[in-house]
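call fold(seq) -> C-alpha cells
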Amino acid sequence: MSTHRLPVVKTLPPARPRLWPDGKTWGHIALHLLIPLVMGAGMAFAYLGAFHSPDPHHFPVAVVGQSPETKVFAQSLNDGSDGKLQVTTVATTEQARQQITDQKISAAYVPTKDHATILVSGAASEAAAGAAQKVFLPLAYQQHLPVVVEDVRPGGPNDAAGQSVFFMLVALSVGSYASVVAIAAATAKLRVGIRLLVSAGTALVVAGIATLVAGPVYQVLNGYEWNIWLLGALYSFGIISIGLGLHPILGKWTTPALTLLFVMLNFTSSGGVYPASLSPAFFAGLNTFWNGAAWLDAVRDLTYFPGADFGMDGLKLALWAIGGVALVLLSHLATVKKRRLADDTAPVTREEEESSVVAAG
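ret:
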C-alpha cells in the first residue's frame, strides 16, 4: 500500500503595515477628505459672512407726529444715517402700530413732552426690535425723556422670541435634502414619473413630521396647521426634486451642492436670525427670491400676522418646485441619451456576430 504525501504549501507571513504611507496613499486620503473640508469652509464663510456683524441698511422705521418739527427731525435722522435707516413719518400712534402689524415698518418712535415710546414687533424679528432700540434709545436720552418699549405683536406664549418657525425651517430642510440620496438609490430603475411621485410623498411626510412637532407637540403654531403643512410639503418637494435632478450629474457631490443651496445660502438669507434689513447686501438680495425666505415669510404671516397676503411667497415656492421637476426631466433625458450613445458605440461580441450571421442566412 503506497502512500502519497500531500505537497507542503508554504504560506507567506502577512505584509507588515507601512510605518509611513506613500504618496499615493496620502493622495487617496486627501481625496476622501476633500468634500468634508469644502463643506466646512463653505459653512464658515456663509455663516460668519452673514451673521458676524449685523448692521442696518435701509432699515424701515417711522417717527410719529404731524408737526413741522417732527418732519424735520425725521428727515435729519434719515440723512444722518448714511443709508442705514429709511425714516418716514406717521400721523398717529395707531397708524404706526398698524404699519408695524402690516410689516411695512420694523419700528416707530413716539416722542411726547414727558416720555417716549418705542414700538416694535418681537414676532416679526427680535433682532430688528433690538436694532430699533439701539437707534432710538440714544435719541430719547438726548431729549431727556424716559422710554417705554411696546411690543405691538409679540411672539406666541410658547415662542417668546419668535424663532420656532425658523427652527422648523431647519428641520424641513435637513429632512428634505437628506432624503435625496435615499430616493435616488431606491428608485434608480423606476420610471421618472414614479420617482417624482415618491418625492412628493416623501415631502408630505417630512412636512407632516415638522408640523406635528411644531404644532400639537410644542404648540408654537397659532392655528393654520393644514396650510403650513402644505406649504412645507411644497418647499420640501422643491428641495427633493432639485436634488434628484442634480444626482445623475453630480454624483457624490450632490450632498455638498444641496448643503450649499439649502443650508449655507438658505438659512443665512431666510431672515430667521437677522432680517434682510440687518444682513449684508448679498444675503439680503437672496432673501428676495430664495425658497427658505419665502417659506419662512409665509409661515410667519400665518402664525403671527393672520390676514397678511402671502400669495407671492407661495408663488416663489411653486416656481422652485417647478424648476426641480424640470431639472429631473432634463437630467433623465440626458441620462437616457448617454446610455443610448454608449450602447451604439459598444463593441460587438463574437456571439452577437454569429447570431447576426445566422439571422442573415
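DSSP finds twelve helices and five strands in the chain.
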